[in-house]
Design goal:
Number of strands: 6
Number of helices: 11
Distance between the termini: 38 Å
Helix content: 55-70%
Structural class: alpha+beta
Strand content: 5-15%
Order of helices and strands: HHHHEEHEEHHHEEHHH
């Protein structure tokens, strides 16, 4: 995985504005992974994709993730902090099919998750996900669907990383999915907006083009901005 330049960030941000958050994450990974495309990244098992998102986030924004979540019971805001390295160096994600009751299933990918998310209810979504991952066609009961989903989660624990919370105000305990693609995109959006503010300031002061400004090192650009704002 390579570091994205400022030009890469701008391209990613501009092309990703109208994309679904899941697709924004896939596009970011494809751009940062030489030889990869959005299609190949979309075919990664979810745990492998999430680990790659954590690596990309760590590469550009450091290991600490700070966030805020509202208690679903009383609305109290809770701040939280976690370390990307816990995701990167934790239990390894699986990429191999699993066997449940003598039948084989591959692990879900972003494509499978996207299709399941478009279903009208949770039961249909779960059935769609499992049936797409079955390596042989067969009829499954609701109980079997649930059991297979549990086995998939055990085989690929990073597929749906959960954060546990306890509200300090009302004591309510709950879990929420850690959406790494959304976290990463929010930080990319903030960085790009800062870059564009810098470009505007230097272009206004010196008449340089965007490409000339982006070609400057971070240190040189900061020094020019310091002089402009002095």
């Amino acid at each position: 995985m390579r570091a994205l330049s400022n030009s890469d960030m701008l391209e990613l941000w501009e092309r990703g504005q109208t994309l679904h958050p899941m697709d924004q994450g896939l596009f970011a990974l494809a751009l940062a992974s030489p030889g990869s495309t959005v299609d190949t990244v979309a075919d990664m098992p979810l745990g492998q994709r999430n680990r790659a998102l954590a690596q990309l986030r760590h590469l550009h924004f450091g290991s600490r993730i700070n966030g805020r979540v509202a208690c679903p019971e009383c609305g109290e805001n809770l701040e939280f902090e976690l370390d990307c390295m816990d995701l990167i160096s934790g239990t390894g994600e699986s990429t191999q099919p699993i066997e449940v009751d003598g039948r084989s299933y591959r692990l879900p990918t972003s494509r499978d998750l996207s299709l399941a998310a478009r279903q009208s209810d949770l039961d249909t979504a779960a059935r769609t996900l499992v049936e797409r991952c079955a390596l042989t066609s067969h009829t499954l009961s609701s109980a079997e669907i649930e059991h297979i989903g549990e086995e998939m989660a055990l085989a690929d624990p990073l597929a749906e990383p959960q954060l546990s919370f306890v509200c300090a105000l009302c004591g309510h305990a709950w879990s929420e999915l850690l959406d790494l693609a959304t976290f990463l995109w929010t930080e990319i959006d903030a960085r790009v907006r800062r870059i564009l503010i810098d470009v505007h300031a230097l272009a206004s002061a010196y008449g340089w083009s965007e490409s000339q400004i982006l070609a400057l090192s971070e240190h040189r650009r900061a020094l020019y901005l310091e002089m402009v704002r002095a």
